[in-house]
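Q: Convert this sequence to structure tokens.
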Amino acid sequence: MASQPLKKSRLTFRRRATFALAAIGAIAACIGSPAEVSAKTYLVNGILSATPIGYGFKNLKKKIPGASLFLMVTGIEAGSIRNSIVNDIRKRHASNPDEQFTLAGISKGADVVLEVAHEVAKDNIAIHYLAIVEGSGGSVPPNVQQADNFVCAHGGGLCTQAGVAGANLIRLDTGHIDMGNSPVVHGRVIANAK
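A:
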């Protein structure tokens, strides 16, 4: 008879130990693993990008799951694209203030993403990364954490070589249109898109 209560006690101890270890494991998993950061990337192509010359950022979109790509035909669409992105960022930020935003634009699209960054700066919304590819120039607002300004290394053609104050200047040995498909541009955007 004495062995019977001992057996029950061992089972109870094993159950308690199993539950305790499971609880410790769950707590350690929560503490030890960082929360997954939500991120959104917006890619804005330039004028005539709805035609085959917009191939660079079309290829980049394939490499960034969930990225939004905006194309233009004449440039008239720039204002509505800007407003669409600004409204989406504001909405997403309201539902998740920790979400990270990446903006990348080429040519007229570079001007659009720079305007978006300035617009959401009014709401104190951080932009994790801003890629300006052969834009018209300007300055990076203070809400942008990191910015690159990609320009043609050599003038000519459509190359603007415009400076952007506050952005890291990266000169590439390629033309204006081809720069959208540059491995350097793609690599930097992908690395920063999270």
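The chain has five helices and eight strands.
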